[in-house]
Specification:
Layout lengths: L2 E5 L4 H13 L3 E5 L12 H4 L7 E4 L2 E4 L1 H12 L11 H36 L5 H22 L12 H4 L2 H10 L4 H4 L2 H11 L2 H9 L5
Parallel strand pairs: 1-2
Antiparallel strand pairs: 1-3, 3-4
Helix pairs in contact: 1-3, 1-10, 4-5, 4-7, 5-9
Bound molecules: S-Hydroxy-Glutathione.
The site of S-Hydroxy-Glutathione has 12 residues, from α1 and α3.
């Protein structure tokens, strides 16, 4: 049965799931949910995600929401041979889990504000970038990336020398930050972060995802 992914091609959280689908090589159908008309807040989408957000995945009768839960589900169900979740030993699984959590707890908040301020706010909502907010979030993200720089000076990827979901989860916001905001130097000025980013972005699966994200150069 073909997976159905309910979301939007320009959404970071939808793209996160598409990245895993492409890494594993699964067939899927992207069913558009139009945020501009509030389709995500009404039935039938609200039944797929009670928080009225995208994405949601339907795999037969199973319906899931939360992009990072969907990615783990897909790896466990269809990507067992991959290293995307190293569940061979509790120690390796913990290394991936730890950096998956770091992305959620430390990276996502400042980078999503920066992308919102520079891209979604002006483009979708006709608002004006708040430079005070931007300055505070640039500082926060810089501190997080200092930690990444130290870790990535020891291993090629976050959890170890292998590409995992811990890295993949950074793809879509990283892409938008680098291509639609004036803050690419946050990544490029840190040599190990820069090399890590290039290793992520140059993967064939990543290229398919980022090609579909609009607003990019
Ligand atoms: C966040 C989903 C989300 O913010 C996840 O799936 O990872 N933790 C969740 N979705 C946004 C689009 S961002 O790609 C969304 O649906 N926004 C509309 C809204 O919240 O009303």
């Amino acid at each position: 049965m073909v997976l159905k992914l309910y979301g939007s091609p320009v959404s970071t959280c939808t793209g996160r799931v598409v990245a895993v689908i492409e890494e594993i090589g699964l067939e899927y159908e992207l069913v558009p949910v139009d945020l501009t008309t509030g389709e995500h807040k009404r039935p039938p989408h609200i039944e797929r995600n009670p928080f009225g957000q995208i994405p949601a995945l339907a795999d037969g009768d199973l319906v899931l929401f939360e992009s990072r839960v969907i990615t783990r589900y897909l790896v466990r169900k269809y990507g067992k041979g991959s290293h995307l979740l190293k569940e061979h030993t509790p120690e390796e699984a913990a290394a991936v889990d730890q950096w998956i959590e770091v992305e959620v707890q430390h990276f996502n908040s400042p980078i999503s504000v920066l992308v919102y301020q520079h891209l979604f706010l002006p483009v979708f909502y006709g608002g004006k970038t708040d430079e005070k907010v931007v300055a505070a979030e640039v500082e926060k993200l810089g501190k997080v990336l200092d930690v990444y720089e130290a870790k990535l000076s020891k291993t090629k990827f976050l959890a170890g020398d292998y590409y995992s979901l811990a890295d993949l989860h950074h793809l879509t916001y990283g892409h938008y930050l680098l291509t639609t905001t004036p803050h690419a130097s946050l990544f490029h000025s840190r040599p190990h972060v820069k090399a890590w980013w290039e290793a992520i972005a140059s993967r064939p699966a990543s290229k398919k995802v980022t090609a579909a994200l609009s607003f990019t150069s």
